[in-house]
Amino acid sequence: MNLWQEYKRPASVAEAIQALTTSPQPAMPIAGGTDLMLDLKQGRHSPVHTLIDLTFVSEMKALELRGDKLFIGAAVSVNQVANHPLVIQHAQALNEAGNLIAGPQVRNTATLGGNVAHALPAADGTIALTALDAKAEVAGISGARIVPFAELFLGPGKSALDKSAEIIVGFYLPQIKKGQASCFKRIMRPQGVALPILNCAVWIARAENRVVDIHIAVGPGGATPFRATDAENILRGQPLDDQSFAETVEALLAQAKFRTSARRASADYRQHIVTGLFKEVLDTAWKRAE
């Protein structure tokens, strides 16, 4: 059985939106296809008539500095993102997350936009982008708009995008400045390539021994990508010491909504291990920002 009936290869964002909205329906955008093709083959996705291949859209393959932002096209492969010098310099958490996504073969094909569009709240790339305060460029019939990253998600596997009329063009991240750094780490079962039991990303700005600003993301900490804003508010403006760390962890545990997964871990276990993981990520980002 054919998994689709028509295949189109637009060369620009405008052509992609036109193809998506005027082609025989249902139509779906595809880039790496590492999730979509498997879901189609295994019957977890409803049949698709038209596939719109985004990998030839030049605007979506760019990875460059634009003003004071780092732009990463949604169709850039995870491997290219993870190993690009600009990402290593300005978004080290994303570099580290990208190198842990699946295995080398998948990373060479999968895209950062697809990782986000799949809308899993604990996806490694998603948690890193959450901590880095990313914004997304979303294109539709009426043009392009910039969307705060958190607004792309409605729930586990539920994207706010209208996939029949909208695509993610790319992501904008702030360039790193003096006294700023980020870090990403995760805990997973020791089987090589595995889904995370828990992951964490921190972006921090420091001045001597004081936390000027901080973003903390933990996955899965809720139905959508989780920012520990209560913990951030406690640590922001404070010296990083044992007392401030203890108060920050207490706020994180109170705000996070860990859930039990039969394939990964229980909520209680995640609550038990998050302190050690968060401390390791925070300490690494803190030292990098020195």
Structure, explained:
Helix 9 (229-235) packs antiparallel against helix 10 (242-255). The protein has helices at residues 13-22, 36-41, 78-83, 85-90, 92-98, 104-109, 112-117, 124-131, 229-235, 242-255, 267-288, and strands spanning 6-8, 27-30, 50-53, 63-66, 69-73, 135-140, 143-148, 153-155, 158-159, 167-174, 180-188, 196-207, 210-219, 226-227. The longest helix is centred in the last third of the chain and has 22 residues, at 267-288. It has eleven helices and 14 strands. By secondary structure, it is α+β, with helices and mostly antiparallel strands. The chain has three domains: 6-53, Uridine Diphospho-n-acetylenolpyruvylglucosamine Reductase, domain 2 (2-Layer Sandwich); 58-174, Uridine Diphospho-n-acetylenolpyruvylglucosamine Reductase, domain 3 (2-Layer Sandwich); 180-288, CO dehydrogenase flavoprotein, C-terminal domain (Enolase-like, domain 1). The termini are far apart. A hairpin with a 7-residue loop joins strand 11 and strand 12 (196-207). Strands 4-5-10-6-7 form a five-stranded antiparallel sheet.
Question: Keyphrases for this structure?
Answer:
4-stranded antiparallel sheet; single chain; globular; 3 domains; 5-stranded antiparallel sheet; Uridine Diphospho-n-acetylenolpyruvylglucosamine Reductase, domain 2; alpha+beta; Enolase-like, domain 1; Uridine Diphospho-n-acetylenolpyruvylglucosamine Reductase, domain 3; 290 residues
Could you give a short account of the major beta sheet?
5 strands, antiparallel
From the alpha carbons, calculate the radius of gyration and give it in angstroms.
Answer: 19 Å
CATH architecture heading of the largest domain = 2-Layer Sandwich
Protein structure class: alpha+beta
Average pLDDT works out at 94
CATH class of the largest domain: Alpha Beta
Based on DSSP secondary structure assignment, what is the total number of beta strands?
A: 14
* H/E element order: EHEHEEEHHHHHHEEEEEEEEEHHH
Q: Quote the CATH topology of the largest domain.
A: Uridine Diphospho-n-acetylenolpyruvylglucosamine Reductase, domain 3
Q: Helical residue percent?
A: 25-40%
